[in-house]
Amino acid sequence: MIRWKSFHGAYQVFTNISSLSASVFPSLYSASGGEKMGATDADSTKKKEMVHSPILTYFSVITLLSTCPPFVILLWYTMVHLDGSLLNTFNYLMENGVEGFVNIWPKPTAIAWKIIACYGLFEAALQLWLPGKRVEGPISPTGNKPVYKANGVAAYVVTLITYVSLWWFGIFNPTVVYDHLGEIYSALIFGSFIFCIFLYIKGHVAPSSTDSGSSGNIIFDFYWGMELYPRIGKNFDIKVFTNCRFGMMSWAVLAVTYCIKQYERDGKVSDSMAVSTILMLVYITKFFWWEAGYWNTMDIAHDRAGFYICWGCLVWVPSIYTSPGMYLVNHPVNLGAQLAISILIAGILCIYINYDCDRQRQEFRRTNGKSLVWGKAPSKIVASYTTTKGETKSSLLLTSGWWGLSRHFHYVPEILAAFFWTVPALFDNFLPYFYFVFLTILLFDRAKRDDDRCRSKYGKYWKTYCTKVPYRIIPGIY
What whole-number distance in Å separates Cα of residue 146 and Cα of residue 208? Predict the structure, then answer.
């Protein structure tokens, strides 16, 4: 049965913009993923109801399918050709209309397809062949336990070293990627649509496990996905590839590409570009260091592989998440040593706190509540719940440390980190801040949805938890 409340993923909030006209989208989706699920959390999922009326849900999904692809092209064109100015883009479209938009949409070229194919095959090979520790994911709703090979850090290091080495030794110049960026995005848009159609057909005719099924509606099946854990063969996990090895890895590759492009053109890398790139790379490094934990999150353990997850990771992440660096290529800012260092330190501190929040909760769960939290025994609530099979089980809810400040405090440093790798662009244009605004709305929406899910699951225990930890995200405010 389709999970009607799973409006979740990197560009999910963009759906709400379209359908409700009330807000602005991983997560994926934040790059660090959704709320971590316990080993049996999926078993407790009860019958879902639509968040909105059927008509509004249809409208939201169709609007997302039709507006996200042109938005990616408009963002690229505005950043690269119109000085990052929304006003310039608005004036252009007003003067030239639909025909003008069609004219700026780049056609996928052979070199674009070649770059995508080489990159995708390289990452797939690393995923399959690099050694890694065996890691088990959470038990699925039908009792399956997925197994992964944790080699994300090795793949990340090999990718960046290889990419920079190709440039350093004159084998391949990454400026080619930037110069053909529009064509690459165009190819990704169309290629990813075809890939999602493949996933839809595979889910019908050759599902990888019993964690698959149809809602009976072709649009929703295509959008939300058919399979929870689609694989090619026994070992190649499709969601790990799309979410981690293509999407998140491309964020790092493009961040480096923008630096090299600016260096090749200007003979130096501006301090604003350096600060923004370093912070993004630190954040992405944190993601791959924590990749095994990500496999326990809603993105992997709850959300099926359809358009909104897979297309988002293949297209939305490389285009939207990298946009601050894309803007800085042609709009370098001289911050000065003091301001640059201040932004860098503040951003790294936020990324560390975000990491430490996840680490604290993982240790608490790994030790069954026996680990120390800030040097003390943790405060916790033992919450019981009933699964769909009628079994009574329990979970531990941490109410001290970072998790005693608010129920989703880890979103605060994540949002601030995004601000700090964007603020080197300063404030001449709004568009570089689109990802920051988008992420903020995404995470506030995600926090509410997760609270609703936990309230339904834990009942009176969740009420007790909210009494002990009254704030949802921002301590003392919200």
Answer: 11
Integer Cα distance of 475 and 471 in angstroms: 6
The CA distance from 100 to 94, in Å, is 9
CA separation for the pair 251, 318 (Å, rounded):
5
Total count of residues recorded for the chain: 478
* Residue 396 scores a pLDDT above 80: yes
Q: What percent of the chain has pLDDT over 70?
A: 88
In the chain, where the domains are located: 12-468
pLDDT at 303: 85
- What mean pLDDT do residues 227-235 have? 92
Residues 182, 465: Cα–Cα separation, whole Å: 49
Tell me: the pLDDT tens digits for 20-57? 332 323 344 444 444 443 333 433 333 344 445 677 77
Question: 345 exposed, middle or buried (CB, 10 Å; 0-12, 13-18, 19+)?
Answer: exposed
Distance of CA 190 to the CA centre of its chain: 20
* Residues 168-202: b if buried by 16+ CB within 10 A, e if exposed: eeeeeebbebbebbbbbbbbbbebbbebbeebbeb
The Cα 451–Cα 443 span in angstroms is: 12
Question: In the predicted model, what is the mean pLDDT of residues 232-240?
Answer: 93
The pLDDT of residue 6: 32
Beta pairing partners, 393: 385
List pLDDT tens digits, range 414-425: 999 999 999 999
Residue 205 neighbours by CB distance under 10 Å:
7
CA 69 from centre of chain: 17
- The pLDDT value recorded for residue 79 is 95
Q: Where does 232-336 have alpha helices with state H?
A: 238-239, 249-266, 271-289, 291-294, 298-301, 323-330
Rounded to 10°, the helix 323-330/434-458 angle is 170
Nearest to 88 by CA among 64, 104, 66, 67: 104
As a whole number of angstroms, the distance between CA 152 and CA 316 comes to: 21
Phi, then psi, of 398 in degrees rounded to 5 = -75, 130
Q: In the chain, how many H helices and how many E strands?
A: 19, 6
User: CA-to-CA distance for 79 and 290, rounded, in angstroms?
Assistant: 32
Chain segment 62-88, per-residue pLDDT in tens: 888 899 999 999 999 999 999 999 999
For residues 9 and 308, is the Cβ–Cβ distance under 8 A?
Answer: yes
The SS3 of residue 387 is coil
Two structure tokens written together for 457: 């699951």
pTM for the whole structure? 0.86
